[in-house]
Design brief:
Rossmann fold; 281 residues; alpha/beta; two-stranded parallel ribbon; 7-stranded parallel beta sheet; single chain
């Protein structure tokens, strides 16, 4: 299979591309960064400089492909200005451009990166793919994106990833900095849950979905152990060498206790890192 990967050098794309190649697939890798072309080529991908917001730059990479993966995002970094405008455009305009490129090139397989944050806050209740959506305002463009994919007429699969960490994500670096500075503060009483996923494991899910996900399916990609902040933050403080975190911080993200059962049953996926304990070892 020849796979078009848009967002090939992001934190997720850099994990997906080599895994597709290892499975014997050919990859047309699209990046906005000209300096990344040499790296993509040396690992065996056909590299293209392009932008999901510029429809014309997707036409050549899409020719001859059998599937497309939309991995492009521009999430504002924590601690900086929380301006989601560019990410919103990628979700809305970029998705429309990539769907059109797939339709024009005549292939139907399409796999979309999405987020579990669409579910909103569900306290300690388990969240599966049938849980009603209650997205925060910053995620409204993601709802629009998913709607476009479902209406595309393509052979689509949507993967809703949890908060992911691992090489290139910057999450461990942020945790370590906060822990060592003594600013890692447990939200509220610490009873809220967060669902996590290592970048290696979400990449493996994308490869399996590209190969064998049933058409018109949506899966949560989360590890096996949603964790309460009262457990996670003291663990981070110890491994990164900081003081014990205080309680009473702002609530932050919604409490999400997501299950991966449907993904496991449908695709045979199992996480290499079942929890933060092994993922951060």
């Amino acid at each position: 299979m020849r796979v078009l990967v848009v967002g090939a050098t992001g934190a997720l794309g850099r994990q997906v591309v080599p895994r597709l190649l290892e499975r014997g697939h050919a990859v047309n890798a699209v990046t906005t960064r000209p300096e990344a072309v040499a790296h993509l080529r040396v690992i065996g991908a056909d590299a293209f400089v392009g932008d999901i917001l510029d429809a014309a730059t997707l036409r050549d990479p899409a020719r001859g492909c059998d599937a497309a993966l939309h991995l492009a995002t521009r999430i504002p970094k924590a601690g900086g200005a929380r301006d989601f405008a560019l990410n919103d455009r990628i979700r809305r305009e970029g998705t429309a451009n990539l769907i059109a490129a797939a339709q024009e090139a005549g292939f139907r397989r399409y796999v979309q990166q999405s987020i579990t944050f669409l579910y909103g806050d569900h306290g300690s209740d388990w969240i599966d793919e049938d849980t009603p959506l209650a997205p925060a305002s910053f995620a409204s463009s993601t709802v629009d994106m998913e709607d476009q994919v479902r209406a595309s007429g393509l052979d689509w699969c949507i993967l809703r990833g949890a908060a992911f960490y691992g090489p290139g994500t910057g999450r461990e670096e942020s945790w370590a900095e906060s822990a060592r500075a003594g600013t890692l503060t447990v939200p509220g009483d610490g009873s809220a849950y967060t669902s996590l996923i290592h970048s290696v494991d979400i990449a493996r899910a994308f490869v399996l979905a590209t190969e064998s996900a049933p058409s018109g399916t949506t899966f949560n990609v989360v590890d096996d152990e949603p964790v309460q902040y009262a457990t996670l933050y003291p663990h981070l403080a110890v491994i990164y060498g900081g003081p014990a975190p205080k309680h009473g911080g702002s609530a932050g993200m919604a409490s999400q206790r997501c299950t991966n059962r449907r993904l496991k049953d449908a695709l045979g996926w199992e996480p290499v890192f079942p929890s933060f304990r092994s993922g951060l070892a």
